[in-house]
Amino acid sequence: MLERDAEVGRMRGLFAAAARGQGGVMLIEGPAGIGKSALAGAARRLGRTAGCRVLGARGSRLEQRFGYGVLRQLVEPVVLGADTAQRVRLLRGPAHRALTLLDSHLVSRLGGPVPGDLGAFHVLARLLVNLAKAGPVALVVDDVHWADDLSLRVFLHMLPGLAESPMAVVLAGRPSAAPGPFAELAADPAVTVLRPAPLTPAGTAALVRAVGGEAAGTRLCAACHRLTGGNPLFVRELAAAAGAAGGTAAEGDEEALRALGGPALSRWMDAVLAHLTPEAVRVAQVCAVLGEEAGPGLVAELAGGPETLARGHDELVAAGVLRGGGRLEFVHDLTRHAVHSGIAVVERSRLHRRAAELLAAGHPAPLVAAHLLETLPSGDGWVVDTLVAAADHASSRGAPRSALAFLERALQEPPTPEATAGLVRMAGEIAYWFDWPAAIGYLRRAAALAPDAAGRAEATELLGRAVVLNGRNADAITLMENALTELGDGHAELDHRLRTQIIAAAAAELDLRHTGARHLAVLSAAPRLSDEVRCQLHGFTAFWTAVVELDRDAAVSTALRVLRLRSSGMADQEASSSLSYLVLIDADHDDVLRQLDGDWSAARETGSPYTAALIGYLRVHALLARGHLAEAEAGIRQVVRLIGRVPVPLTPVFAGEILAEVHLAQGRLTAAAEALAGASADVSPYKALQCRLDLMSAQLDLAHGRAEQAVRRAEQVGRRLLADGWLNPASYPWRMVAALGKHVLGARDAALALAAEDLDLARRWGAPRALGRALRVAATVTGGRAEPELLEEAVRVLRTGPARLELATALHAFGRRTWRQHPQAGRAALTEALRLAEECGAAELARRARSALTEAGTRPPEPHAARLTPGEWRVARLAARGRTNRQIAQELNVTPKTVETHLGNIYRKLGVRNRTAMARALAATDLDHPD
Questions:
Q1: Given this model, what pLDDT does residue 437 score?
Q2: pTM (predicted TM-score)
Q3: What domain of life is recorded for the organism (predicted)?
């Protein structure tokens, strides 16, 4: 622990804070041999001194594919040592499913596995939270660069709330440039990163003399520092080798030192093993192959018997390769990997194969398969079967990446030609959940290998979905229509499923009128449909009815039917649910945001990252429609973080579109332009999404005074939409933008025609937000005596719906137009517009409302936000029901500090000082819920 006082001091502070209930994460990062393991050992001692319960684990390259391997090391000792009452407390709430996920041998199956990565992360995070409720906990994980991804994802999942928990996490590992959870942890601002520096010349000299005695000369100390760069492990090993060799090496001759060991530990290990007996070398190799499973029985079996083990073990302990005390453990994990890498490839493969055979009885399939990953292909059916069983095991426990690794190795073996097609398809199905480009490759191959048209169509159905998720809807339509043509009659259910995927792609590609309508007609005329297909059909019908026919009542009724089918468990299709939610958002349905809030919370706990991100994206759209700008911005950033775990090509596009709309509403034009530029940088979005981006660009042009360019962009969007029959102005208000642009350009007749058409369509649709907006634009371009009447109607219509920002905009326009003729009504409208704009976070509109009030001779009120935001309402409702801050934080997936902040705002807005008064005020108040 030379020259590590600063690092020790930081760790001591971390554990002291955890003992006070303020947790945190510290990452000790550095190259091999820099002293990370020594600091991890110090962390365990410091944690115990601070009063924390210390749990330790170590990452292992062999166990990297073993889902939740590190977490298993951390929690199994706790479960083993818990009595019945303690175990009940540990497994309270969602944590009751943790043992099933970890596949613990301590219990039998406790029900089906939790589906999806996010559900698993939430369950295991809650297990650790429950553990910390009994007192402060320190989790210390060494060699975290070899930890399994899923365990690291749980730590990432816990980061937002860790600051309010009595839990300190210390991770030690090498830096990694590869993307993944370890890199995400290292880059997260909530993680404190310590990077121990190499030893100084003085520190190196002190270590050399500690190893070789005070007689070690200055020349040897200086040579060791130059050759090792101050790496403590290399310094120690080089100094020990020099002392053992004597001669010029012990005097500090650099050439002799290089020949003896050099700066590379693996070279030193080769030199050490060269002086040992064959029995000792064999035991070292077997221990390196077995890793954490290196028990005496297995090692003896692989090494050649108990006598070989006994002789080799003693020799390796004497040589400083293995620890003493009867343990088959290397003095440093780097030593183990140096031995492992030095084994000849063929021999290493043979040892791992034999280890897998010995472990096959009584050990989990993924551990056996982890050894088979290290073997050379040989066309062995047992290897294929074992790897496939491990893939099934990993997939059923929410570890698709591990499952895919096992399948890829099985395909290299290779399996029989008959089995290959099924395994390739299985690989595609698993990759679909986290790596769509890889899924596309596997599923294309699966379709080509399928023995008949039905098999090709089944593979193509999932292939089409993966291609859609990569934004290539036209390609997906072609693939699936070709599969339909080849399929022919006799496969009704498969035929129907393919058609639903084609319709979904057609909607995104602005091909509803032709391709979509053709397949909708076929499904509508089908005599029998499965629940899944019927749910899809209802979703498409709702969307068609809204977009093309403008029948709001029918569209809403059908959309609600889809959500009821989904909530009843009869069907759960992303496309139908998404389209139904879009219909309800555009229809200003009262309950849509509440429903999305519930789905968003549930999806983060039990869904795949993609499903949760999809719900989050829809929720953000609903927040924007209601004018909750700050929540929408925070929401899309949450979605980006969430879906960052899945390589979704369109993520920057979705994020850029939302952020541009938020920034534009806030009056932050430069930020809006930057968001749009980011959205268009890397990928060509599908046509419907491209229309949204182009329309946002047109609105930005209009805000900058580039009216001619705004009109050109808006009309281009209109032509694309009209070509597919899209009439509804709610989602794509291109006529509004074009009308305002032509108004600025002085083209009065053209502006009036566009505004009148927009208003007629909005009246047919009937949703307050679209109609109020159309009335406001018609008032602007009409002017004269009709203007205040149209604005008054806009305000009246918007008061019946949830679109607060649109209401604020209409009130501002009405107030500016009428305050001279009707001072009281005009000033009241401007005052209300100011309040609403401030609540929405629309700074530019608030500034203009303040300016208008000043012009009208009224002193604007001080900035305030009397209404509760949706987030504050959720906290207020739970607090009024008696939930504690920590319970509220867990239910809403926020930190207790966020709950405290919300409560402070709630008390201020309601004019109360405690929860009791708040509950009374909520019961008595006539404040409307902001949803």
A1: 81
A2: 0.74
A3: Bacteria
Cis peptide before 647 (omega within 30 of 0): no
The sign of the CA dihedral 620, 623, 624, 628 is negative
If we measure between CA atoms, which residue out of 94, 98, 124, 125 comes closest to residue 110? Answer: 98
**Which uninterrupted H or E stretch holds 670?**
helix 669-679
CA 344 to chain centre: 40
Single-letter amino acid, residue 62:
L
Confidence of residue 238 (pLDDT cuts 50, 70, 90): confident
Q: How far apart (Å, rounded) are the C-alpha atoms in residues 546 and 636?
A: 26
Which amino acid, 534? R
Q: What are phi and psi of 806, to 5 degrees?
A: -65, -35
- Burial class of residue 186 in the structure, from the number of CB atoms within 10 Å of its CB (0-12 exposed, 13-18 middle, 19+ buried): middle
Map 97-165 to HEC letters.
HHHHHHCCCCCCCCCCCCCCHHHHHHHHHHHHHHHHHCCCEEEEEECHHHCCHHHHHHHHHHHHHHCCC
Which residues face 28 on adjacent strands? Answer: 172, 194
Question: With contact defined as beta carbons under 8 Å apart, do 739 and 755 qualify?
Answer: yes
Q: What is the pLDDT of residues 459-509, one digit of tens each?
A: 999 898 888 877 788 899 999 999 999 988 889 999 999 999 999 899 889
- Residue 571's pLDDT band (cuts 50, 70, 90): very low
Tokens of 810: 């209409």
Average the pLDDT over 891-911 and give the result.
75
Cβ neighbour number for residue 346 with a 10 Å cutoff: 9
State the amino acid at position 695 in one-letter form. Answer: L
CA nearest neighbour of 605 among 97, 180, 117: 117
Q: Rounded to 5 degrees, what are φ and ψ at 768?
A: -55, -40
By the 10 Å C-beta count (0-12 exposed, 13-18 middle, 19+ buried), 785 is classed as exposed
Q: In whole angstroms, what is the distance from residue 665 CA to residue 111 CA?
A: 48
- Answer positive or negative: Cα dihedral of 545, 551, 557, 563: positive
Which distant-in-sequence residues (6+ apart) come within 8 Å of 538 by Cβ? 558, 559, 561, 562, 565, 576, 580
Written as six digits, the tokens of 912 are: 């109360």
Measured CA to CA, the distance from residue 344 to residue 350 in angstroms comes to 10
Distance of alpha carbon 287 from alpha carbon 321, whole angstroms = 11
CA distance 790 to 76: 69
CA dihedral (219, 221, 227, 228) in degrees, to 10, reads: 180
The answer to whether the beta carbons of residues 648 and 434 sit under 8 Å apart is no
What is the rounded average pLDDT of the residues 333-348?
A: 83
Q: How far apart are CA 724 and CA 808, in angstroms?
A: 33
Instruction: Considering only CA atoms, give the Rg of the chain.
Output: 33
Note whether 798 and 588 are within 8 A (CB). no
For residue 189, count CB atoms less than 10 angstroms from its CB and return exposed for 0-12, middle for 13-18, buried for 19 or more. exposed
Q: How many CA atoms lie within 13 A of 40 on its CB side?
A: 27
Q: Give the three-state DSSP class for 171.
A: strand
* Average confidence (pLDDT) over 791-796: 96
Please name which of 623, 688, 686 lies closest in space to residue 658, comparing C-alpha atoms: 623
Q: Quote the CA–CA distance of 113 and 64 in Å, as a whole number.
A: 21
- Distance separating alpha carbons of residues 335 and 326, to the nearest angstrom: 18
**Cα separation, 221 vs 238, whole angstroms:** 10
- Find all residues with CB under 8 Å of 830, minimum gap 6, and list them: 811, 812, 815, 816, 819, 849, 852, 853, 856, 858
CB 156 within 8 A of CB 181: yes
Tokens describing residue 764: 């047919």
pLDDT for 182: 86
Dihedral over alpha carbons 59, 61, 63, 64 (to 10 degrees): 90
Taking alpha carbons only, the member of 28, 10, 18, 238 closest to residue 137 is 18
- Whole-number Å distance between alpha carbons of 928 and 554: 27
Q: Is 704 helix (H, G, I), strand (E, B) or coil?
A: coil
Tell me how far apart the alpha carbons of residues 274 and 272 are, in angstroms, rounded to a whole number.
5
H-helix or E-strand containing 530? Answer: none
Residue 420 CB contacts under 8 Å (≥ 6 apart), including other chains: 411, 414, 449
